[in-house]
Amino acid sequence: MRWNYTPVQAASVADLARSLNTTPVVAELLMRNGLGESGAAGLFLQPALATLGDPFLLTNLAAATERLLVALRHGQRIAVLGDYDVDGVCSTAILVGFLRRLGLNPHYVVPRRAEEGYGLTRSSIDRALEAGKPDLFIALDCGTNSKDEVAYLRQLGIDVIIVDHHRSKEPPVFDALLINPHVHPCDDDGAWRYLCTVGLVFKLAHGLLKRLRADNHPVALSIVLKEYLDLVAMGTIADLVPLAGENRIFARHGLRVLSDTRRPGLLALMQVAGLKREQGLVPSDISFRIGPRINASGRLADASLSVDLLLSEDWAFCDNVARQLDDLNKERQDIERLITERAERYVEENFSEAAGLVLFDEDWHPGVVGIVAGRISRKYHRPTIVLGNEGDLAKGSGRGINGFNLVEILAGCAGCLDSWGGHPMAVGVSLKKTRLDEFRAQFDEVIRQSREGAAVEPGVELSGWLDATQLTEQLMGELEQMQPFGMGNPEPIFGVHGVRLKNRPDVFKEQHFRFVAEDAGGRRISGVAWKMADRLPPVGPALELAVQLNWNHFGGRKMLQIELLDWRLAGAAGS
Q: What is the pTM of this model?
């Protein structure tokens, strides 16, 4: 694996560290994030809720607020349809719960993936209308490209609001109030341009609350909007949007709210996921513990189960549903494990030289291939589409890597696709099986022609170099200023020199190993390496390590632990 490190100007790092009263390590990370100016860097380090922008700056949000006020005044019927991923589920739970507190009782549905497909489809609309014709239909995390479906609702005399963050493949719907910053960009909207739907729903709730409070609405005056940030953080982190601007504010404060949440559903979900709130929560707890359990219902069953969980106040119900989701998640993991193994064989045997990967098998479940696409893209460091069988169609998901925009790549292949959509790092794709070879060739060619084509070669991007003596708990405290890490603010990977192993690493579960390194002063530093048991570092020689830093909680204590990503003998390459 190639180690890439681009030095930044030492004088600039020192100046920024001095102006912010922080350390050079943090200052260098800020500069790598494009935050070399002290004002912007200071806001990044202290993302305050008070700096959230006026919600009415978003196109159509004021009009959508007025339409909701009409519904409130007249007690109108509302139907809400939200997507079946974490963003859609949390968006639905926020809006439905918020409107319930204001006295409305919206009916909600979530598309049934296997029967109705993705998003705002005729079949999902018709099922929503079975409860009775609403006055207002609200689509969340879908609908930007649903012209025909919106026209159908309007023909029935139903008003439509769409809150979505997916890119528009064609001129967007006009006969609906569409809140989507990608479709309606405006000047100085950088802080909220990349909000996912759950963030946009929060802004809509904020706007509605402002209007109601201006009229001294008694319930509105009692609502603490901050209490919804637990769900906002979950959708924001799970949906792979950049954790910058208002997304960073939502994620930073939302993780704290999530740690103290009183929602029975979330408490039950965290319990089955083995999370300990008192240790604090980090984005990976959502990405790998909570999020997959919520997603499992939409992939293998009915995602409305997850919305029911988030809205319920019944402890017994929540405990039962959380256990169901945990069982579904285990089933999903088993299916994904088998698909991943076969997908890896396909790559090794058939597509080892491909710049981009398009993988398909008749036996694969379209509902679980997204996570497989993520694993394959990370392992082979290439944009990856993984497709499963759905009748005459091959249907699935794609995951990107840094340097490649999947939306732009798919736009270059649109001629052979039935449907596609998403955002730069995650997309959904559907096409006729007869066009698979054509799509595979186009996907590969577009990537090869892209200006970042060389980025396909795997490597590790170092955020900085440290001497092993700098690996301290004090450094961990300094790095916490940069939390939460995620898209747009990657968790730093440090090159470390001045380290040796005095004892052979301890292999466990045949794949991983633990080790104890020593710095130049003989201080011991504990570490772990995942899926690297076939490449143990030697005992004795001076080493250079590529690592991430985290806390290891054990026995009521927390200790610094390094996570090894790669190693090499000192002096093997320039650093």
A: 0.86
